[in-house]
Model the fold of this input.
Amino acid sequence: MNAMLRLAVVAALLVSASAFMAPASVNTIRAARNAAISARPAGLKLAAPSLRSSPKAAGALRMGQTPSSMGETIEEFVANDDPKLQKVVLALFSAVKEIAYKVRTASCEKSSCFNEFGDEQLAIDILADNVLFANLKACGACEVASSEETPTEDPQGGTGYSVAFDPLDGSSIIDVNFSVGTIAGIWPGGTLVGVDGHDMAASLISVYGPRTTVTIAWKDKDYSHEFLLIDDFSGNHGKWLRTNEFTAINEGKMVAPGNLRSTQDNPGYMKLWNYWMENKYQLRYTGGMVPDVNQLLIKGKGIFVNPTSPAAPAKLRVLYEVLPMALLIEKAGGKTTDGKGSALDLKTETTEDRTQVAFGSAKEVDRFTEWVGWAEPFMVTSKDDPNWKPAEK
Done:
């Protein structure tokens, strides 16, 4: 290697390393970059600093150690699974990729966002719904699919599995460019009524944010696994690569409190809220269930709750949201409850069943069960009932 080439390579390495070293002065970084450009032989391209160019540095930014199988594609990761389950999973990943693009390029008004679907201009949540149905029907392994948008069981012409999904959770906050997501649960057989969380073959959530990710868990595999959609026009462009493995949700003072209105007539929830505030918990809540639950996995701590009360009833649907999320949380080492027991114990009586829920670390979820519980909030019909009492601090 001649002297000019060596100088260019060293300068390039210095620029890349600066992303992971102690902050350097602007002048130092600029000087290194200029030296690299000046010394670069014709035709030699300098790579931009990238986490993918430094696996050790990338791993250091995540919790725990990086398993040796990180970086494999979703196709490689499911290669030994039941072939029909493979088809359904890959169909969902394909749909998410398309939805991610549609979300990223949507035109938004004050209350809704739109994009093109064929020759039509559709609201983005309806478009996401259509994309999911189209991919599931095409895979040939989906018997029945059901969407939160249209909560009926719709035959898809395949055999093997049934899928329930919320096509675009958080669609009410997409216009302000908050992260939103898709939720899906996969069950064997041809019905989604009379099933519980223990029957699920797999479940996933996608997050459409600065990055597009899918976190997925299988009944017969350990842990929950995150895949990143590569969107950098490299050789991996358009692929889903495994980037994380979630194994524990520990204790930590971080809370995402949904349905706060119910603190007004749910004394147990008011008591819990006061406890969080008095103990200086971090409030981390966007109003989107997918990002608010996903952060428990990424941060490895905290709790998400969405209780109910007489004046502010539960809105989360068991089939489309609670059961798929519960599998992801419990496979990641967390705990779930509806106030009585594991959320995975809930059995669907209809496609529209609703419930309260808490997801997170064991002690936080146990505190929810003890203070909020299941029956106590329903002993009074409203705050005007003489039996209602404000929460004790």
In short: Residues 4-23, 40-66, 375-393 have pLDDT under 50 and may be disordered. The first helix runs from residue 3 to 17. Residues 16 and 93 are 32 Å apart (CA to CA).
